[in-house]
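Researcher: I'm preparing a figure for a lab meeting and need a structural model of a single chain. I don't have an experimental structure, so a prediction will have to do for now. The sequence is pasted below. Please return the structure as tokens so I can convert it later.
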Amino acid sequence: MEEAEMVLEKIERSIKNNEELTVLSVGWCRLGVEGLRKTLDLLSQSNTVTVLGLQENSLGDDGACLLAEFFKTNKTVTNCDVYNNGIGPRGVAALAEAFKVNETLQYFNFQSNIIALEGMQALSAALAVNVSLNALSLYSTSLDDALVAVLVEGLKANCTLKRLTLDSNRSLTDAAVQKLLELIEVNFTITEINLPSSAALKPESVSRLKAVLADPVRAAWASGEADTKPACEIPLARSGE
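Model: Understood. Here is the structure written out token by token.
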């Protein structure tokens, strides 16, 4: 029996037996688009799964579009990983549309898929209005300075994202870091940005970024521990200014 079919049968049995699945990890199972369709159909019968792992299943843009439709109505999954699924800008844009209306997802991993301009424009627009994502991984998604600039514009209006992963995007230069510095002047929720190791990033700029993000007052605002948490558009005051 094919690996994907065995996985689907196991999921179906668990749901029928009322087993409270919370983690559904079907990465590296050769699902393909049709396998994903069946998986999502089964998931629609469950209200307990919070973690969905779909790594390396050859989903492509068509699979991403299916997943996007699922997330427009799903209210249980909080974490999703689509690592290395051959998803391109069309699929990213579809998922971004889902992010506009989904209020449950807290973590999404786009690692090793291709964002490109079309995908980033849609993702940026979605992040400007999203109210639930607090961690986003764009690790190794072929980002460049221009794409980071587009991303930053959306994040300026975002008040929920705390962790942004940009590792292994080796085309980034100091221009991207400058854009990120502009971002954290107006967005106080972000407390962690992971950057690639690259000679094109000036150490002093990276150090400045880390220092601002590590500000304990900023961390208190982001966690809600401070008595007064300023709105996103209020600039962060620093000593000596």
